[in-house]
Amino acid sequence: MMKQKVIQRFANLSAIGMFLILAMGALVTKADAGRGCGDEWPLCHGKFVPAHTISSFIEYSHRLVVGVVTLILIATFYLVFRYVKRADAKWFITGTIVMTLIQAVMGAMAVIWPQSSVVLALHFGLSLLAFAFSLLLALIFTPYGDYDGAGVVRGGFKALVWITAVYTYIVVYLGAFVRHTSSSGGCSGWPLCNGEVIPELSGATGIVFMHRIAALLLFFCILTLYIQAKKRYDATDKMVLGSKWALIFVLLQIISGAVVTWSMTNETAYLFTGMIHAMIIACLFGFLSYLCVLTLYYRKQT
Fold this sequence. Notes:
Blueprint: H1 2-30, H2 54-83, H3 87-112, H4 117-140, E1 152-154, H5 155-180, H6 203-232, H7 238-262, H8 267-297, E2 299-301
Parallel strand pairs: 1-2
Keywords: Cell membrane, Disulfide bond, Heme biosynthesis, Iron, Membrane, Metal-binding, Oxidoreductase, Transmembrane, Transmembrane helix
Pathway: Porphyrin-containing compound metabolism
Protein name: COX15/CtaA family protein
């Protein structure tokens, strides 16, 4: 029992740590602090503790948190493989570590060798996957991770869940691409873009408008998912609860996206709302990932 509690605490710390890394990574991008430590890694301007400029502090703090969380992940990895018999727990901690390592390597490469916005946008996507894996691991040690007596799932509903999750990842990538191309100012105002329903689709305006349309379609996908879950399962079923929270978070994501646009004239508010937007996206993707896992445990029904 004592070992179980220790493992659960480390799993929770891993999920919290990955969530913090994701939020701080979004802050680094929003504050344009990715070059805050120059072209050096792991040192920052040749020092372990750099000068306290804002950009170097933000970038170095992000690196420090990644280092601490990595140690927590290593300890969690050992505990899971040593004491936990569930195969899914081993898959989830392995996925977390693999995504974190790839993310760290890409981050170091981005500092030493500047990369395109297309590649840099993948950095946030990897952080999202790492957080999703860590969240799924933490849920194993809660009632939500108990899949005994799971219900049935039809092929059509299972496909809807997975398609929605994959499409969400694409929308997230588009959002990260908006940030890394500094295109956020392409659409002033919300819900209209530069005062138009359909603006001129070129440059930064086209990139932002494409992201907005993709986010709107995502809302309808998740709304459909929730409606279908309610039709097929009892109100207390994990499928319904997960779908409901996904719907709540996609609504919050749209609202926070509007707030980000409205706050662009205030630098501090813009940074803060941008972080909130990224954290909401992480929660949304986390719930959709949980639904994907549920479809693997529910019995298939034709």
